[in-house]
Design a protein that fits this description.
- The structure holds three protein chains of three kinds.
- Chain A contains seven helices and no strands.
- Chain A is mainly α.
- The longest helix of chain A has 36 residues.
- The termini of chain A are far apart.
- Chain B is mostly helical.
- The N and C termini of chain C lie far apart (66 Å).
- Chain C is α+β, with helices and mostly antiparallel strands.
- Chain C contains eight helices and twelve strands.
- The chains are: A mainly alpha, B mainly alpha, C alpha+beta.
- Chains in contact: A-B, B-C.
- At the B-C interface, helix 3, helix 8, helix 10, helix 11 and helix 12 of B face helix 2, helix 3, strand 7 and strand 9 of C.
Chain lengths: 253, 550, 340
């Protein structure tokens, strides 16, 4: 291919892009498709790091569940399965609404998009409220990480509650390790939910402002990708924390 | 056949004004603080990493002075421990990890792609400020007394010792996210912003190295992040994950830590190897022998680096079976490393070699990487590693890889791209003298340490038996020569900024893509969108005009 | 494989190049491997650097140099990828075999307990006797070390035996060692474990200063008879010295010296100067609610055997418990009485 041909061909591309260089297309991109693909690749790479971030916790869980099987089983029984299951449903539903918000913004239906985003944010809040009640109960029973284990405390002030009963004494040794992991894993997941609410709120604002169209819906798309990951992590946390009744060999369940 | 649509007459600027470039197109401090230009961000990183390099380098000099004589030389044991910890933490997390990818990489990556910027310019700036935030926490930790844990933060020592450990760990944790986001940005940029004609098989080898590095940054750093987070919680809440007294496992911390920190070694060395490819190609005027083998070996090193972390733990009490597996996997690393060395050496055969100052650093890299790599074989071999582990032999080995290879490549790259970045030449004669001072000083510091280690001198020792003194004195003596060389280099670059001759477009007669832009480049790098019809090392296809100075 | 090669009488490299004198039956294998890889490394470094320098000189850039395409040598490239593979498989196998010798103990190995704590080593013999910083082992008898740590990570490192293993809190690690040369050889701590405040004397005479680096012990390889005699005898007061002087000696040998000063200056633990017979202010939260106590015989005894029971105000509960005889504790008390 001669130089002239290449330059010409390229010039055509470029000309086209220039003739149609919308405001939302950043200066260093030639085409909207290029910018969209880049955002997707970037978000997937980011989700890769998210997975590896949680993976350390999953490895720690696997090791200590093998070491302290009966403690993990006992700790798991202390969790509220109803609330956990409810939260799982809420998050699953929010993933659906997130996906629908992408769909509606692809179709350029601005009001529908607003509705789905608001529903997603609402689900996230419901999840956090349920989580708050669960945490409060654990605090009141002294089911806390590490050296705080065994002393009932108020959740907001962290002051000990005199006279409150804690089942901690009847639980096997090392149950505090289970609660350490429970709080760290659900806590970090909760932080991801909070960050998600922030991002969704920003997307909602941009949607109301009319930033998105059939041709430009990249931010909605990548935010939904992130939200699915948050959902996915919970899908693993729920059975690992709430459902698994591990019985150590030779131990009566 | 011409290959690059270049600005052969050095015209830059948006409206073709050759005097307008990225350095002066906007003015004032805020135009730098808010800049989205990858070149300015690269320079800002460069300034920061050089600052931390000097700071941590002074700490290293203090360590060497303390070890000049047995017993107390200048400080007491506790202070000594804090000094070597600062040296390690700052050098690893604040200097060497961002040094090449975030500073030089940021500058040349889009230019080598023929792009106007990185994929996510705002994320790029954010990464910089996250890095600065992390560094700030580390500095606050130092101001409140520092930490004495060593840069590895091994538990349970790090969870029980006094000092501002949480702040320091938080600093490293935050700086890690800067590294992750830079990785995300570069991966995307290389995938989506290659100029027309820039196929994967024409990608400059420096970018292959940066690509492999970015993958490691994205996949390994989060494991460090979660480890450091758990460490902070262990220290503040006693969560019992890493502390044996609470039911945890200190060896698990080591597994987590090295699952990041071994790939981190490749985050440090791969970009250095990438630079050496560019230098050797430019100064031999030919394509690196076995281009394909060289980039495949970069990717192979990135892959293997995830499989060998526990070779840092052969004495940690892991099972013999685990030791066996990790020893075997570790030897795999030797193959791609060897392939690279053979290819670089082979490239010199019948080439047209110009030993300008950047090339001297590349040749020194080759020599020192041989030593660093071959001493790695001692440490991969189980029985021998048991003797050498945690001695000065290991200290010398990793300094040969980190300093003798990565930092020499960094210096080489800095000399090489300096004219492009600043638009000024430095004094070549001085640069050569600086090189020899640094080269002699550096090797004089670390060769004695190999001998110390094999004779059984453990690392992180404040004091030692008299039999080790001669070698320690030699090492300390050469550390002063190295320091003189480095301050001389700094002075040389400052002189270049003040009085340097104006740099031509292509002072090294390179066929590399980034040299097609003016020196210094205008805001969006190239005046016209470049189109590539040959590889960056195809000197036999490059026209005389392309590799001419102007 | 190593023996196969050595028996082929490939010129064996000079013994122990740059390695400390070997004192165990396991060392020669390690030394052989070390020397072999040492010469291989020298060979490769010289060849690569030599070629590099030669070519850089020979192919110096001249004006008017033509620029050629780099030739491709597929066979050469395959060769330098595949041949090293065989070489590293050999290295791995040889290193692993020699390693396993240090890892697996025979049935009749002498079991010695090793405990690391800041900043001294305690050795425990099969009959229960414990000794700090001095280990006696019989020559020619395989020893199995069972290693533990009381506080943080340490590593038991005997350069003369080419052996090293971490002492990890919460687990036991093991190491095998067959001394075959009479004499003394040092033990170091190879895993960083911090430093005391100030600049106290090390517990072992002649050892370096500074906590981690001061954590040195001495292995005395002796005949079987001498060993048996040593193990049977309990710790004895040296002849001809007063109780207070013995106490002073114990103060150093048991590494009390690393944390407790005798001149009133601040250390990791409270100073002994002017302590005995006076009231001590306690950290009530760590001492079962007790705010102060009289530093009498009973308090000192308790603080040696159960150091965490009462913790002096302003100090961390970091002292490991000691197993000392009645006579030793009394001697230390006598010594403390002299520090007024």
């Amino acid at each position: 291919m001669s130089e002239a041909e290449v330059a010409d061909e390229h010039h055509d591309d470029h000309g086209e892009a220039h003739g149609d260089h919308p405001k939302w297309l950043q200066h260093h991109w030639d085409t909207p498709a290029q910018q969209f693909d880049a955002a997707k690749i970037g978000m997937w790479a980011f989700l890769g790091q998210e997975l590896l971030f949680f993976s350390g916790l999953f490895v720690a869980y696997a090791i200590y569940r093998t070491w302290y099987g009966d403690a993990f089983a006992a700790g798991s029984h202390e969790l509220n399965r109803t609330m956990g299951a409810a939260n799982t449903c809420v998050l699953l539903f929010s993933s659906l609404t997130a996906a629908l918000s992408v769909r509606s913004s692809q179709l350029g239906k601005k009001n529908e998009t607003t509705m789905w985003i608001v529903l997603t944010i609402a689900c996230a809040f419901i999840f956090l409220i349920v989580k708050y009640f669960e945490y409060t109960a654990k605090f009141h029973h002294g089911l806390l990480p590490g050296s705080a284990f065994g002393t009932p405390r108020d959740m907001l002030t962290f002051q000990p509650i005199p006279g409150a009963h804690s089942p901690a004494g009847e639980l096997p040794d090392h149950t505090h390790v289970f609660f350490s992991l429970y709080f760290v894993m659900t806590g970090i997941h909760g932080i991801h939910v909070i960050i998600g609410i922030g991002v969704w709120a920003w997307i909602l604002k941009r949607n109301l402002r009319g930033d998105f169209s059939k041709r430009y819906f990249t931010p909605v798309d990548v935010t939904a990708l992130y939200w699915h990951l948050v959902d996915l992590v919970w899908i693993y946390l729920f059975p690992m924390m709430y459902l698994i009744d591990y019985v150590a060999p030779g131990h009566k369940g | 056949m011409a290959a690059i649509t270049t600005d052969q007459h050095g015209h830059g600027g948006h409206d073709g004004d050759p005097n307008v470039n990225y350095l002066n197109n906007t003015r004032g401090i805020w135009s730098w603080i808010y800049t989205l230009d990858h070149k300015r961000i690269g320079l800002m990183y460069l300034a920061a990493v050089i600052f931390f390099f000097i700071f941590a380098g002074v700490m290293a000099l203090l360590v060497r002075i303390e070890l000049l004589t047995p017993g107390r030389t200048i400080v007491d044991p506790d202070t000594y421990n804090r000094i070597f910890t600062i040296h390690g933490v700052v050098m690893v997390f604040l200097f060497i990890i961002p040094a090449i990818p975030a500073s030089l990489g940021n500058f040349v990556l889009p230019m080598m792609l023929g792009a106007k910027d990185v994929a996510f310019p705002r994320l790029n700036l954010l990464s910089y400020y996250i890095y600065i935030l992390g560094a700030t926490f580390a500095v606050i930790s130092l101001l409140s007394g520092g930490v004495d844990t060593g840069w590895t933060f091994y538990t349970p020592y790090s969870t029980t010792t006094n000092g501002a450990v949480v702040l320091m760990v938080l600093g490293a944790f935050i700086a890690g996210f800067s590294s992750i986001l830079t990785g995300v940005n570069f991966i995307t940029t290389i995938h989506k912003l290659r100029a027309p004609g820039l196929t994967w098989s024409r990608l400059p080898l420096f970018l292959w190295a940066i690509y492999a590095t970015s993958i490691l940054q994205v996949l390994a750093t989060p494991v460090l992040a979660i480890t450091l987070l758990l460490l902070m919680l262990e220290r503040t809440l006693d969560i019992g994950i890493f502390d044996a007294h609470k039911g945890g496992d200190p060896v698990l911390f080591q597994h987590f830590f090295w699952f990041y920190s071994h790939p981190a070694v490749y985050i440090m060395i791969l970009p250095g190897m990438g630079i050496v490819n560019e230098l050797i190609a430019t100064f031999t005027h030919r394509k690196i022998m076995g281009y394909r083998a060289v980039f495949v070996s970069s990717l192979a090193l990135a892959l293997f680096s995830f499989l060998v972390w526990a070779h840092h733990m052969f004495t940690s009490g892991m099972s013999e079976y685990a030791n066996m597996v990790f020893s075997a996997l570790t030897f795999l690393v030797a193959i791609p490393s060897g392939v690279k060395v053979f290819n670089w050496t082979g490239t010199l055969y019948k080439a047209s070699i110009w030993t300008a100052s950047p090339m001297l650093y590349a040749l020194a890299f080759l020599f020192q990487f041989c030593i660093g790599g071959l001493t790695g074989l001692f440490l991969a071999m189980l029985a021998v590693d048991i003797h050498l582990h945690d001695t000065y032999f290991v200290v010398a080995h990793f300094h040969y890889v980190m300093v003798g290879s990565t930092v020499f490549a960094f210096w080489g790259g800095l000399h090489y791209w300096w004219p492009k970045m600043t638009g000024k030449m430095y004094d070549e004669k001085t640069a050569k003298r600086v090189f020899w001072t640094v080269f002699v000083g550096y090797n004089g510091v670390f060769i004695p340490q190999f001998v110390l280690g094999s004779r059984g001198m453990p690392r992180r020792y404040y004091d030692y038996l008299p039999q080790f003194q001669t070698l320690h004195m030699v090492s300390t003596f050469f550390s002063w020569i190295l320091a003189v060389g480095l301050f001389w280099m700094l002075f040389m670059f400052i002189q270049s900024l003040r009085h340097g001759k104006k740099a031509p477009r292509n002072p090294w007669n390179s066929a590399g893509y980034e040299w097609g832009a003016p020196s210094p480049p205008p805001l969006e790098n190239f005046v016209k969108q470049p189109v590539f019809t040959r590889g960056p090392y195809d000197y036999h296809l490059a026209t005389d005009a392309e590799i001419a100075e102007d | 494989m190593i023996h196969l090669l050595t028996s082929l009488s490939l010129t064996p490299p000079p013994a122990a190049f740059d390695l400390p004198p070997a004192i165990s039956a396991e060392s020669p294998d390690v030394d052989w491997l070390y020397n072999m890889i040492y010469y291989v490394s020298i060979f490769f470094t010289v060849v690569i650097t030599g070629l590099m320098l030669y070519w850089v000189r020979k192919y110096k850039r001249q004006k008017g140099d033509k620029r050629f395409e780099t030739p491709h040598y597929p066979r050469l490239e395959i060769a330098w990828t595949v041949i090293p593979c065989f070489f590293v498989v050999f290295l791995f196998h040889a290193g692993f075999k020699a390693f396993m010798k240090q890892a697996i103990a025979g049935q009749d190995a002498l079991e010695i307990g090793v405990r690391g704590q800041k900043w001294f080593w305690t050795f425990r013999y099969p009959n229960g006797r414990e000794e700090n910083n001095h280990l006696y082992v019989p020559v020619g008898h395989q020893v199995k070390f069972v290693i533990s740590a009381a506080d943080v990570l340490h590593a038991f490192y005997v350069p003369g035996g080419r052996i090293k293993k971490d002492a990890v809190p919460g687990m036991f690690t093991t190491l095998v060692f067959t001394p075959n040369v009479l004499g003394d050889t040092p033990v170091y701590c190879a895993e960083y474990c911090g430093a005391p405040l100030g600049y106290p004397e090390p517990a072992l005479d002649g050892a370096p200063h500074g906590g981690h680096s001061a954590m040195m012990a001495m292995i005395h390889v002796v005949s079987q008879e001498e060993f048996d005699k040593f193990v049977k005898e309990g710790p004895k007061k040296p002849e001809g010295i007063s109780d207070a002087d013995w106490g002073k000696k114990l103060y150093k040998e048991n590494a009390c010296i690393t944390c407790h000063t005798t001149d009133g200056s601040k250390g990791t633990g409270p100073t002994w100067k002017g302590m005995f017979g006076h009231n001590v202010e306690l950290n009530a939260g760590l001492s079962g609610g007790m705010g102060s106590t009289m530093a009498n015989e009973d308090y000192v005894r308790e603080s040696i055997t159960k150091p965490q029971a009462k913790v002096v105000m302003g100090f961390n509960p970091v002292m490991p418990p000691y197993k000392l005889s009645e006579k030793q504790v009394s001697a230390i008390i006598e010594y403390m009485k002299t520090l007024q």
